[in-house]
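Data card: per-record layout.
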Amino acid sequence: MSKNLSLIAIASLTMLTGLARAEADSPAAAATPEHTLTGNLSLNSDYRFRGISQTWKLPALQGGFDYSHASGFYLGTWASNVSGNSYNNSAGLELDLYGGWKFALSQDLTLDLGALAYVYPGAKLNSAPGVATNEKYTNVDLYAAVSAGAFSAKLSYAATDYFGLSSTTAGYAYFSSLAARGASKGSTYLDLNYSLDLGDGATLGLHAGHLSVRHYGELSYSDYKLSLAKEMAGLTWTGALVGTDARRDFYQAGNAAGQQAKRLGQAGVVISAGKSF
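The structure for this 277-residue chain is written out next.
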């Protein structure tokens, strides 16, 4: 190799090394920490889970924390007050515990695999007179989700009986008039979402979902949500139209004798104000 070629090679290597070092020290590279902890808190006019009111159409205070690692591994917890009336047998709190792994399949496609446990401390399902039961509402979902740009799709699979529904509990509590047909383990929920950035801190959200309850088709239904979110005064304000085609006789509740039952899946507007930190 000639002396000139050697000098060119050394100069090229030095330049490439300098570029690599500059890229590693750039703000973009430093902006992805190995560990991230975030929180959220919101006040809502109603708590709708898969389109069904969990607070008997009354306000809900909600919040949680999320930990994520640069590898894509994450853990989180989230909590909300829920109705304390006879509909859910004195359950006053929902506590969600979840974890999973999110990773890129390609430049524009992300896969998310995880598990989520819905826990209701101290709450138990009603049972037939004289029949002892320790059946609880606790439900565990396994899920797989894909996202591509503004679109996401998620399928959840109940690894336990769907919120306690089984041959032991069918026909009682809010499952009244259901015939016992075995376990509801294996129930699924399909969740489709599209988010459109309108600019100036405003976002339009579209959601469609379908719940399929195994062995208890009467409880299956579809739900929808149209939302508009706007960042103002340090908070995210959201207004959403939420509704379902759930059967009224299975999704309604009242907490006093002679009181008119409320349709928990009926279309309605939900307003919320939230903060992430």
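Known properties of this structure: The longest strand covers residues 93-104. The helical segments are 3-24, 27-30.

See the next section for split statistics.
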